[in-house]
Amino acid sequence: MTSPAPRVDDLTQGTAVLLIGGGTGLAAGLFGAGGSAVGTPLPHLAGVPPFVALASPLPTALPVALVSSGAYRRRRHLARRVLTWSVAVELPATVAGALLTPLYLTVLGLPINRALATSLAVSAALALPGSVTHWTLGHVDRRVTLAHTAPAVPAAYLGARVAVRAHPGRLTRLYGVALVPLASALLLR
């Protein structure tokens, strides 16, 4: 039997989680990723205990991915065959968010909006098992999840709306620029 996760009570941490949720949602909508890369380490840096920082933002991935991929889908950017294969091989959700968009862009040659839309849809499908597991183990703090999700969902929709209207070349370059800090952090580790 596992002990329940430590709870987050500090107003400063709650405010930080709200801001992080909004930023994570916006990044997800714009770039088809951001949850694992941003949504986990930043709450921990704000003082959220490690397991809570890992598990509590995970349930946010499902509504964020559904809302933002829906904006892409309405513009017919979803690559359904790629989505089906990606989910069928059950790629881990962290791999999906961090690597699928670049894989779809470089290996499969998908246009940026199709790559982003498909990555988001795959992330939605793969976030559910991890969310249920962490919830069952008691790692999820509902207050952190709510504080993270409340701004993330509308921000994701906004990000996706901006992305589907953006010039593909500019969006691709912006996506590349957004990856630089993440790659730098990994290289400097």
UniProtKB/TrEMBL annotation:
It comes from Micromonospora siamensis. Keywords: Cell membrane, Membrane, Transmembrane, Transmembrane helix. Belongs to the 4-toluene sulfonate uptake permease (TSUP) (TC 2.A.102) family. GO terms for cellular component: plasma membrane. This is Probable membrane transporter protein. Its main location: membrane. Coiled coil: none annotated. It comes from the Bacteria. The chain crosses the membrane at residues 16-39, 51-70, 82-104, 116-137.
